[in-house]
Amino acid sequence: MNKLPEISRRRFFKLLGAGAAVAVILPGWMVSTDTESINPTGDPADLSSWIHIGENGKVTVFTGKVEVGQNIRTSLAQVVAEELKIPVEAIQMVMGDTDLTIYDRGTFGSLTTPNMSPILRKAAAAAREMLLEMAAEKWKVSKNLLTAEGGKIIYKKSGKTESYTALVQGKQLIRTLKEEEILTPPDNWQVIGKHIPKVNGRDFVTGKHIYTSDMHFPSMYYGKILRPPAWHTTLVSADTSAAEVMDGVIVVRDGNFIGVAATNPDLAVQALSSIRAEWKTEPQPSHREIFNYLKENAGSGGGRTENESGSVIQGMTEADIRQKQTYQLHYIAHAPLEPRAALAQWEGEKLTVWTGTQRPFGVRTELARLFQIPEEKVRVIMPDTGSGYGGKHSGDAALEAARLAKAVGKPVSVTWTREEEFTWAYFRPGGIMEVSAGIKKDGTITAWEFHNYNSGGSGIRPVYNIAHQLTEYHPAESPLRQGSYRALASTANHFARESQIDDLARSIFMDPLKFRLKNLSDERVIAVLKAAAEKFGWEGKELPDNHGKGISCGYDKGGYVATCVEVSVNPVNGQLAILQIVQAFECGAIINPDHLKNQVEGAIVQGMGGALFEAVVFEGGRIQNPFFSSYRVPRFSDVPPIEIVLLDRRDLPSAGAGETPIVGIAPAIGNAIRDASGIRLTTLPLAPDGVVKNER
Amino acid sequence: MELLINDKSYNVATQPGQSLLSVLRDELNLTGSKYGCGEGQCGACTVLLDGIPMRSCILPAHSASGRKITTIEGLATEEKLHPVQDAFLEKEALQCGYCTSGMIMSAVALLKKNPSPTRQEIITFMNGNICRCGTYNRIVDAITLASSKIKAQSHE
User: Taken in order B19, B20, B23, B29, is the CA torsion positive or negative?
Assistant: First the structure.
């Protein structure tokens, strides 16, 4: 049963003391489609997680996943508590520490709940069974006569009880996971499906939680990096002599990398600003010509086919009405409130970096490559971080801090300014979506052709039954650094699709809800659509003049979403007001209802930013709105009452919820604007100045 | 320079023009107040000066001298949380928590000035604080709850 190499076992118990542990080995038993994130090498020694029950009664759970506000520290503890029959408070979660936790590809793609959560749940069930076996052996009774409850094994017939703590005294037991473990059925759940408060919430409301940017070491230096004035710029020359003579300042030059480290942050800023540098910037497109640029740079020979069935030509021939439309969306920024930050410390050959990242193991690889040292010599620790939204996959600040720390010989802290975060982090890509569709007079969609340029392929397949369809994603060369974002292209693809669906319904004077239902057969999409419409009072909703209602639906990453919005558009000046939002969401069995609701609400609010007014303005490689004063994000006054309907499907596995709840809001608002004003807006953001204007 | 922070007196050597936020975080290791923008736009650095909410990232430290500074660290007494802190926990009015200190300090100032704010008054007062996780409606609910908690306390 124990296939663990002795070294891991020794290290493990040395670290935690004696006790009992369950290790998860080999992903073979997993039904998940994304086994790579659990076990990248397939090596049996490559564990994915541990649960340890200590002699002191503490239960410690180890996972490479990280907490960025999505509350997995709570939800993962909940599934362990459920199966191990202990209170959530008895569990300590060790997360995202590359020396203590096992390799994990990263916290993204809404994968924690569908992948890591079932593993930990099974591991906890295995630990419980192991404790039952230990008690059965001790008392010489059948395991089936015993129950686990409140951290104890109970033999009801005899009245005997034994705590887990007592059972594991002096033991060093490791059990590995079997393919099938005995899981608590949903009807008996006592912790899963219940509201458990954020586990370390008190630390946040008292200011005690230490984010990376809060960390202080004695004799620590503060680092600053010389940035070019624009993207696609090369350094011609730099004069660092003034900084070099400053007391308490060390200048680090390594090729194009120029940084300073100083004994206090103000001195670091002074030193940096004393550097005289000359740069050469290449000509490059601005936000104004970005859409043409992306289309022209999308590579020849067509895109990557995401979905194809039937013949679009035939579908178009069968159609009574054909519509073609082009949609666009601008680049946006994640703008996590805690900017990129890292603290690096070298002890001999060993590098330790604390940093806010969604990929601690990925950052470890980046660091090992940069310094050409083995990965075992690098430890990356991720303190719970001031959010990411898909924007903290990279290790930029970690690399910078480590380079400076190596030169200085002291720990160095690097915290990006807001301007740096807005300029040098990567962006959610902009893109173009071209849609052609045909329908019959009765509302049957006969043809669907969809092309996405640059923004991405996620959520691109239509949710509707369409006999003849083709969807393609065309990667393009981006003039700005682009990367992941909450739901990424799913927002763009849902915006284009659900706007087009709305116009198709309007072309035959059919209610947009009825039109959708007519072309849908996925019962989970239908269920959220009906739930949202019912809560909103879609049918027969009485609207004052110049008010409009909009609806959208979709699915992605195991989550099903439908959104209804009411807006008003002033007929004189176009002033837009978002008055009400209702969203239904379903992602299988709910683990923590209030935290799920919080995620769904937050996604809607963040989505409102990209839908209404967020856009990166750039020219000649310079970001022209790199501050909160010039880059508008949603604020209190932007948010109307939001009602969430959660559908709990305990018969289905739980999926993640960090992303898909963001995809419905932009098209629902766009469709409501169309309903209120007759204007179809095809570009995100829809109303940067808060005003609805005809685009053409 | 002498600063009175959370009823405790501190003697600090500051650089000319150094912000109060920098003094709190880098000199005194009071890191509950956060850097979010450096231009007074996001409210993550909010502290109270004689009960009035100020953006400590754009406030020169010397201008806080002689005034009563309250930071998030000074809000809870002993093991008892401030009612606003309690309400934030009860309403789960946070996700990543990075804006939370500033939100709570602003909310404390609001309730001091206006013990029974309407929803609209809360929104107007709090509009300078950004929560990128989008928990705004929860924060409004938490402030409303805190308002009733404080009133209940004063009737005890």
Answer: negative
Residues of A with Cβ-Cβ distance to B29 under 8 angstroms: 216
Q: What is the 3-state secondary structure (H, E, C) of A302-360?
A: CCEEEEEECCHHHHHHHCCEEEEEEEEECCECCCCCCCCEEEEEEECCEEEEEECCCCH
Q: Do B136 and A70 touch (CB under 8 A)?
A: no
Closest approach of A391 to chain B, Cα-based (Å)? 12
- A354: Cβ–Cβ under 8 A, 6 or more apart, which residues? A212, A215, A342, A343, A344, A380, A381, A382, A383
Query: What H or E segment, with its residue span, contains residue A120?
Result: helix A117-139
Angstrom distances, CA of residue A681 to CA of A329, A425, A629: 11, 29, 26
Query: Does A418 sit within 8 Å of B81, measured CB to CB?
Result: no
**In sequence order, what DSSP letters do the residues of A464-488 get, joined into one string?**
S--SEEEEEEE----SS-B---TTT
Give Cβ neighbours of residue A324 (< 8 Å, ≥ 6 apart). A434, A435, A436, A437
Instruction: In whole angstroms, give the CA distance from residue A496 to residue A490.
Output: 10
pLDDT, tens digit, 9 for 90 and up, residues A193-208:
999 999 999 999 999 9
Q: Supply the Cα-derived Rg of chain B in whole angstroms.
A: 15
Rounded alpha-carbon distances, angstroms, from residue A60 to A21, A25, A120, A190? 9, 17, 11, 20
Check if the beta carbon of residue A481 is closer than 8 Å to that of residue A428: no
- Statement: residue A177 has pLDDT above 80: no
Q: Is the dihedral of CA B111, B117, B119, B122 positive or negative?
A: negative
Look-up: residue for tokens 């309250």?
A: B70
- Region A601-629: mean pLDDT is 98
pLDDT at A36: 33
In three-state form (DSSP H/G/I as H, E/B as E, the rest C), the secondary structure along A144-213 is HHEEEECCEEEECCCCEEEEHHHHHCCCEEEEECCCCCCCCCHHHCCCCCCCCCCCCHHHHHCCCCCCHH
Query: And the tokens for A223?
Result: 């680092």
Rounded to two decimals, the ipTM of the complex is 0.98
The two beta strands, A49-54 and A19-24, are antiparallel
Specify whether the CB–CB gap between A525 and A563 falls below 8 A.
Answer: no
Burial of A157 (0-12, 13-18, 19+ CB in 10 A): exposed
Q: Does A204 sit within 8 Å of B97, measured CB to CB?
A: yes
Whole-prediction pTM? 0.95
